[in-house]
Design brief:
Chain B: Keywords: Cell membrane, Membrane, Transmembrane, Transmembrane helix, Transport. The complex is a heterodimer. Chain A has a domain at 110-311: MetI-like (MetI-like fold), CATH 1.10.3720. Helix content of chain A is 65%, strand content 0%. Chain A has helices spanning 18-21, 26-42, 44-66, 98-134, 136-151, 154-165, 171-179, 183-196, 200-207, 212-223, 225-248, 260-267, 276-303, 329-341. In chain B, helix 5 packs across helix 8 (183-220) and helix 13 packs antiparallel against helix 14. Chain B is built from 15 helices and no strands. Helix content of chain B is 76%, strand content 0%. By secondary structure, chain B is mainly alpha-helical. The chains are: A mainly alpha, B mainly alpha.
Chain lengths: 345, 326
């Protein structure tokens, strides 16, 4: 918000030039996309977060090729070695190169986070939209399940079920994490669907005989796409933290797989005397979280300028320079998102 | 209002019963208490293991419904069953609730007040240095799992201690002070409490301040605040009496839920700093294949959610006149 581009460099997105107005509707889609990208790019923190996340991904998948050590290889000459040219981040008690190990854990943590984010948002969108669209008993039963899942201590349940995925694939763990993290978003989707389902475009589709699932997936859910995108990003961050916490206690990712949680857990006994064993993997974990919350915040501001977090309501001095911008830009931004966001706020 | 609360209570009660039963079934089917005894050296005879398991109502060969019947019968009569060590779960629970309360009470009070104050102040000074700093700091804190904060504090304290034992990193008190409440014992307890309490406070302040900041920002632009200023109220008074009071309302349910659920949610803090509270039981009971304790924790958490739900309904009604009128 702080970065103010001089008005000249910013082509006013607002009043659509007549030439473009005659174009096909596809034009407006790209222009909304471009608008979002431009708003996102204006946010320095968000860009920094994106840069950080890309860097983490590159490191996780490219890093292992840079070092000669493998995460399963033991260097019997160096136990608990401090960071050096040979072992960049030092070695663990077993002589494993910490850099290789952490990068391996980073891979798994990132993948799990992404999968859980997508799964839980998908679940939330589907359940919430179906509950609200059909109403009545469907709604009551589905919301009761939401309440029940909220009452059940998710950490306890996943931990109790952990013997199930011990020895089998970590994907079960991902599904469980997803299954316990969608409920609150599901409620939000439900209340948004309630307002959307009385709108003309939904009614029109209904009277044309479009089936309910098609209406939900083609008309209702795309209308709240921005909320769902933001939620996915937030869920990714939450999943990374949840995954590492469960893995830290041995209830999550199981050997021979490693995640950042297990890397930190395995070295936690030596953490006070050999702090780098803690700080490198924990640092990576924190960087994931920070980058994702920066991105999420930037996305929220870019996709949904009317959301409470993005608003600058109180007239402050800081806001003054904004009036230097073409005033037409402001109403245009609102109308660009009004179609989808009217129900959100 | 009364009828509304009663209906909510009935709904919550059904949920608690179903959630607790489901937890028992999951634990009973998934955990294997027999393994806990089979690994012993010298090995125990098969029959005596079975006998012990039967006595504790944990024998995996008994049909789950029969076990559940026994357990539910006990719970209704106020008996949560035996732990895998043969103690009463009730006694264990009583002790642990005490430990958790001692840890959480102070941390929660400081954490919630601090969070609300920091968030509201940050909103008033939006985009100034203070606001930027607290926002960035809370981003970092919220990006960290609790155990990372805990272990980092531990490492920091060890460095600060520099060989002395001023800040203790493990346990609730030193063994020689067990059961004592004189000055030395209290000092000792305070030394132990510093780090875990700090962990919880940092976490809560970061979380609550984010919410408080955004609700406060919403209120700051409102007409009634301008009216309050226009009729001649001083800025501070208008902000606190008209602004903060309104802005705190949406945060209340969040505060209540988090505070109440912290009883089992302080798992990571208790584990990291070796406090034998409720949160620790959650992790340890699963490791010990202790079906009855797991089920008891599940029940306890469900009851906490019920209490939190009711409490936030009542508090909301008490604080917001609009709800009472309806």
């Amino acid at each position: 918000m702080s970065v103010q581009l001089p008005p000249a460099t910013e082509p006013a997105p607002g009043p659509v030039p007549p030439t473009e107005a005659e174009g096909r509707p596809a034009k407006t889609r790209t222009s909304r996309m471009r608008l979002t990208v431009r708003r996102f790019a204006r946010n320095r923190l968000a860009l920094f977060g994106l840069f950080l996340l890309v860097l983490l991904f590159l490191g996780a998948y490219g890093g292992p090729f840079l070092t000669k050590w493998d995460y399963q290889q033991h260097d019997y000459l160096n136990f608990l070695a401090s960071p050096s040219g040979d072992h960049w981040w030092g070695t663990t008690q077993g002589g494993v190169d910490l850099f290789a190990l952490t990068m391996r854990g980073l891979q798994k943590s990132l993948i799990i986070g992404l999968l859980v984010g997508v799964i839980s948002t998908f679940l939330a969108a589907t359940v919430g939209a179906f509950a609200a669209y059909f109403g009545g008993w469907t709604d009551r039963v589905l919301m009761w399940i939401v309440d029940l899942l909220l009452v059940m201590p998710s950490f306890l349940i996943i931990a109790v079920l952990s013997p199930m995925f011990r020895g089998s694939t970590w994907l079960i763990f991902v599904v469980l994490l997803g299954a316990f993290s969608w409920m609150i978003t599901g409620r939000v989707v439900r209340s948004m669907t309630f307002t959307l389902k009385d709108r003309e475009f939904v009614k029109a589709a209904k009277y044309m005989g479009v089936s309910a699932p098609v209406i939900i997936f083609r008309h209702i859910l795309p209308s709240m796409a921005s909320m769902l995108i933001i939620d996915t990003v937030i869920q990714v961050g939450a999943a990374v933290i949840g995954e590492s916490s469960l893995s830290y206690f041995g209830f999550g990712v199981q050997a021979p797989d490693v995640s950042l949680g297990t890397v930190i857990a395995d070295n936690t006994t030596n953490a006070t005397t050999y702090p780098w064993l803690f700080f490198f993997p924990a640092g990576c974990l924190v960087l994931i979280g920070v980058s994702i919350s920066f991105i999420g915040d930037g996305l929220r501001d870019a996709l949904d300028p009317n959301a409470s977090g993005a608003k600058v309501r109180s007239p402050r001095k800081k806001k003054q320079p904004k009036s230097g911008r073409p005033t037409a830009a402001v109403p245009a931004q609102t109308t660009a998102t009004a179609g989808s966001q009217g129900a959100a706020s | 209002m009364g009828r509304y609360l009663l209906r909510r209570l009935a709904n919550y009660l059904v949920l608690v019963v179903v959630a607790a039963s489901l937890t028992y079934f999951l634990a009973g089917l998934s955990l294997n208490p027999r393994a806990k005894f089979e690994g012993r050296n010298p090995p125990l005879p098969e029959t005596s293991i079975t006998k012990t398991l039967d006595e504790y109502n944990m024998n995996p060969d008994t049909p789950i419904l029969t076990r559940f019947g026994h357990w539910a019968d006990g719970v209704v009569h106020g008996d949560l069953g035996k732990t895998i060590e043969g103690d009463d779960v009730n006694d264990d629970f009583g002790r642990r609730v005490g430990v958790s309360t001692r840890l959480l009470l102070l941390a929660t009070i400081v954490g919630s007040i601090g969070g609300v104050a920091l968030g509201a102040f940050g909103a008033i000074r939006q985009y100034r240095l203070f606001d930027r700093f607290t926002t960035l700091a809370s981003f970092f804190v919220l990006a960290m799992p609790v155990f990372v904060i805990g272990v980092a504090l531990k490492i920091g304290a060890t460095a600060l201690n520099d060989g002395t034992q001023t800040i203790k990193v493990l346990g609730e008190y030193d063994p020689q002070y067990a059961g004592q409440w004189n000055f030395d014992a209290l000092v000792n307890r305070a030394q132990h409490m510093l780090l875990p309490a700090l962990t919880l406070i940092i976490l809560q302040v970061a979380l609550y301040s984010r919410y408080q900041r955004s609700t406060m920002l919403d209120v700051l632009g409102s007409d009634f605040l301008r009216t309050a200023r226009a009729k001649g109220l001083r800025r501070r008074k208008a902000l606190v009496k008209h602004g903060l009071r309104t802005a705190i309302l949406p945060v209340v349910p969040l505060l209540v839920y988090n505070i109440v659920l912290l009883f089992t949610g302080a798992t990571f803090t208790e584990k990291t700093f070796g406090w034998h509270g409720m949160g620790e039981l959650l992790v340890d009971s699963i490791g010990k294949q202790d079906v009855n304790s797991v089920a008891a924790v599940g029940l306890f958490t469900a009851v906490l959610v019920l209490i939190a739900g009711l409490l936030s309904d009542v508090l909301y009604a008490a604080l917001d006149p609009r709800v009472r009128v309806r």
